[in-house]
Write a structure and sequence with these properties.
Helix content is 60%, strand content 2%. A hairpin with a 3-residue loop joins strand 1 and strand 2.
Amino acid sequence: MIPFKKFQFCLIIFFIFASCSSIPKNTKNSCAIFEERYLWYKHTKASYEKWGAPIHLQLAFVKKESDFNWLAKPPRKKLFKVIPFKRPSSSFGYSQAVVGTWEQYKRETSNKYATRARFKDSVDFIGWYINKTSKILRISKKDAYRQYLAYYKGWGDYKNYKNDKKAIIYAKSVKDLANNYRKQLTVCQKNLNKNKYIIF
């Protein structure tokens, strides 16, 4: 059996982690997100400085992929429309990264303890992915539409995106999200700077 004091410590750590990972109240407003989650701004800023991935684009990817739910997973398929079956992919966490690509990210960045349920690691992953997309497919890091197409389809299948109507619809929505986040950050720049934020 686990000693009571150790159990209490584990319980406290769990609740701290859970509270820090809870979904912000207003995920449609970048200013509201950062006002509620100070560390999240630091993490997105670090990813921007490291990989050149715009902060508003990082937020748009997270919003579209998981709606800021750290435990997000694709819904299970159903047998005979009733019986829960396997999930369509291994996507998980804020970025909805699949296992294979996540392992590649950890290898290439030497971030062996990275987890998909941690916001810091997730936005670093998104920055890494956007940077590689820029190198592999020659897509500007500021091009929200095509960057998301590459994120959704994968580098190898990107060339076939015109045959995927769902991917195109999703990419357009991410472009709109990114534009909104960018405009919001511009409007609230002065207030955020007072809280020691720096907006790019």
